[in-house]
Amino acid sequence: MFKIIEARFLAENIKLFEIEAPRIAKKRKAGQFVIVRIHEHGERIPLTIADSDVEKGTITIIVQGVGKTTRELNLKKKGDIILDVVGPLGQPSHIENFGTAVSIGGGVGTAIAYPTAVALKQAGNYVITINGARNKDLVILEEEMKAVSDEAYITTDDGSYGYHGFVTDKLQELIDQGKKIDFVLAIGPIPMMKAVADVTRPYGIKTVVSLNPIMVDGTGMCGGCRVLIDGKAQFACVDGPEFDAHKVDFKNLADRNKMYHKYEQEALKHFEEKCKLTEKINTLEQAE
Ligand SMILES: Cc1cc2nc3c(=O)[nH]c(=O)nc-3n(C[C@H](O)[C@H](O)[C@H](O)COP(=O)(O)OP(=O)(O)OC[C@H]3O[C@@H](n4cnc5c(N)ncnc54)[C@H](O)[C@@H]3O)c2cc1C
Ligand code: FES
């Protein structure tokens, strides 16, 4: 049983949780994740450890409500309990002093890019962050990213805040300005990570992405998280989740992630119908 110590929305549909998990807080390194199960009938979902506080014995996760389980989790409040939090899982990010490192987060990917940006800064890199979102309201962790950056940029697709354009437009602009970039980390939606890889490939800039395949056990046993790296099968939960962006088969990843789309849609529909029914019963009870 894991108690929620703090819970607050950072943006619409994106919620930050601080959870009591002292042993995970002590062991975890940047780039690692936990597998969470809300209750005994719940599915297991992977979520990156965005931060931790060893003294308080807490870890921070940031959750975007995209389907049934993440939306159910986002209904949880301070004081509520989560049944299982397993971790830390996955390989820690490979951190060294590369020189100039660019950390790019797209949407909730920023929550995953943030701890690695912190570790890159601690290793002595000159850190540039590019934090992209569809619009101003969806920008998260702006202050936190700024605090670890030597240069920080916000980009929005609609131009409502910061630089008007995609994270890749800003990255290309920096390259065109002659900025010497030694390392790029990109985390976000699959098309965004692929686009970053396409920008850096011609310049031979070492680029790493954190992959988000469907995961089940998180221990290398089920094969659910199989990804193709340089034509060879790897398990993102134990071999990753970070891989060389120039070697990832992004099409295979996108196709595999679509495999359960029909069932995910059905689960979300049932969940929303249940929520509406509960709301109706509560309203009727209050009216009595
Ligand atoms: C290593 C790793 C770290 C992640 N970290 C974060 C994070 O910090 N914050 C965050 O909001 N999200 C994170 N995700 C994605 C998160 O796990 C999925 O959004 C979540 O599982 C969706 O579940 P759902 O039931 O709400 O949605 P569903 O309706 O089941 O699915 C919506 C979409 O989520 C993806 N998905 C579904 N189930 C899984 C699964 N078991 N594993 C991976 N992806 C799945 C699929 O692409 C699917 O199309 C991470 C994924 C991985 C692999
Ligand atoms: S999640 Fe089962 S092998 Fe990776």
Automatic annotation (TrEMBL):
Q: Which cofactor does it need?
A: FAD; [2Fe-2S] cluster
For FAD, which residues are the binding ones?
I62, V63, Q64
UniProt KW keywords: 2Fe-2S, FAD, Flavoprotein, Iron, Iron-sulfur, Metal-binding
Record-annotated FAD-binding FR-type domain positions: 1-95
Tagged with keyword S-adenosyl-L-methionine: no
Q: Where does [2Fe-2S] cluster bind?
A: C222, C225, C237
Q: Which PROSITE patterns match?
A: FAD_FR (PS51384)
What Gene3D superfamilies does the record point to? Nucleotide-binding domain of ferredoxin-NADP reductase (FNR) module, Translation factors
Per its UniProt record, what InterPro entries does this chain match?
A: Cyt_c3_hydrogenase_gsu, Dihydroorotate_DH_Fe-S-bd, FAD-bd_FR_type, FNR_nucleotide-bd, OxRdtase_FAD/NAD-bd, PyrK_electron_transfer, Riboflavin_synthase-like_b-brl
Q: Which GO terms describe its biological process?
A: pyrimidine nucleotide biosynthetic process
Bound how, and how many: what does the cofactor note say? Binds 1 FAD per subunit.
A GO molecular-function term, please? Answer: oxidoreductase activity
One Pfam annotation reads NAD_binding_1
Which NCBIfam families does the record cross-reference, listed alphabetically? PRK06222.1 (NF004862)
Entry-linked PANTHER family: DIHYDROOROTATE DEHYDROGENASE B (NAD(+)), ELECTRON TRANSFER SUBUNIT (PTHR43513), DIHYDROOROTATE DEHYDROGENASE B (NAD(+)), ELECTRON TRANSFER SUBUNIT-RELATED (PTHR43513:SF3)
Q: What is this protein called?
A: Oxidoreductase FAD/NAD(P)-binding domain protein
Organism for this UniProt entry: Caldithrix abyssi DSM 13497
What lineage does the source organism belong to? Bacteria, Pseudomonadati, Calditrichota, Calditrichia, Calditrichales
